[in-house]
Hints:
The chain is mainly α.
Amino acid sequence: MESPQSSTSSLLSEYSGNPKIETTNKSPLSTLEIAKRSPSLRNLKTTSSQEKFYNHKEAKPNLTNSVQEFIKQSNDIQTEIKKICEICEKISPKKEFEESSEESESTGGILWNEINDMLNEYGFHPITLIEKDEFLIPDSSSMADTLVDLLYEFTSQNQLLKERSIEYQNAISEINELKDSQNDLENKIEALKTEKTNNKLADDVKELEKICMQMDEKMRKFKKEQHRKDSLIRELQAKLYLKSAEKSIVDILNSSVIDKEKKVFFKMMNRDYDEKQPTDIKIMAIILMYEQQRIMQDQEISRMRLSLQDNRGFSKSSENLSFLNASFQMSRDSYSIQGIFDRLGVQGVPEAFKEIEKLKGAYLASKSLEDSINKIHIELFNEPFTMSNMHDDVDETIKALKSYKNIARDFNDFKKDIAVAFGTEIYDCENLIIKAQSLGHFRKLFQLKDDDQEFDAIEQLFLFVHEMKMFLQLARKALGTNEKVPIKFVLEEIANKILDS
């Protein structure tokens, strides 16, 4: 039979989270070892000490894994209290224990006193000791009460942990809200900075436009001063320039797009250039126009450099040439923007944005159409649509669609013919199926072969039924019976008449 000490140790080990410590009746030292080894008994405090512990300024908001596990098991602990009480009631204080050694019996009372001192130190009721056979042994009911007090203390501690956990969660939620508010403020500040930067850029653009106008004025004066000295050279260079420009334009129009422009297109659109896309062709034309303008400007600068080398004021002209080159570099963007406006056929930035939106819409529409064609191609051929074989794939798709259209039309005509044959509505497919099943059932009933015709069988059946009706009608008339008389009675009367005759 299990002793009260072993039952107590099993209960303590179950609710303290430690492995069960085996105890025997040979030595009461095992009970003291349970109290000393159990971290739950060592860490128990009174209500006031618990509040001090939780209100301590160095308490951390993060709960350890063991505490979280204890919170999860709190409901199970509360439900097990009743079971423990029932177990404690079953422990009889009058049960006899096995004899222990003389040394254990002499020191048993002292060890229980030490346990009671520990319980008093942590604010619990001591265990009542009763004297039996000149030895002090613990009262089982008192021990059970003390154990229940310990479990209730665990429950209260669990409740405090739950409350603290809720408080920490609320605090974390408030911190997250503050972080979101901080992010919103940072975004607003960043937006304000961006707006200021845009305003500054607009002012810079206006300043650059003023500088460009000044440079243009200086360029006109410079050309006017040098006009008399290089008029002949300029005419010759102009002719050469026109020929070279005409040749370069023809080469660009007749040749394919080089890799450099393709790379520029890839950087702008983040995809490869497709010669079959109208939108890609327009964008590539704009890129080529910019490149041609750059080449023309370089040729103009080279021509002016050659013309200035023949003049005496070379040093001064060289400085003016450098200044002119810088002005060309600064005004290149404005020329490019004007080129974009000319290419798009607009007069200002708002119209340019509208035209670009139209091109974007056309591109997106083409992508949507391509996706639709791809889905249809997959449904028909179980393979994706490829742009490399676009014309072949489109032809195959159209042929397949025409074939399916013919099949659907033939099927619709067939369904109409079947409906007319059965005398039902065209779209009443369920009724058509029932009619077809009834025809098959008719063939089975009359055991028609595959070569037999249903029309002949139906006509023979109709004649047979008509003859039987006429026979029964004449028989009833001869016998003097009415139509309500069963056929069996009529046949029996006829048989009797034949036998009597």
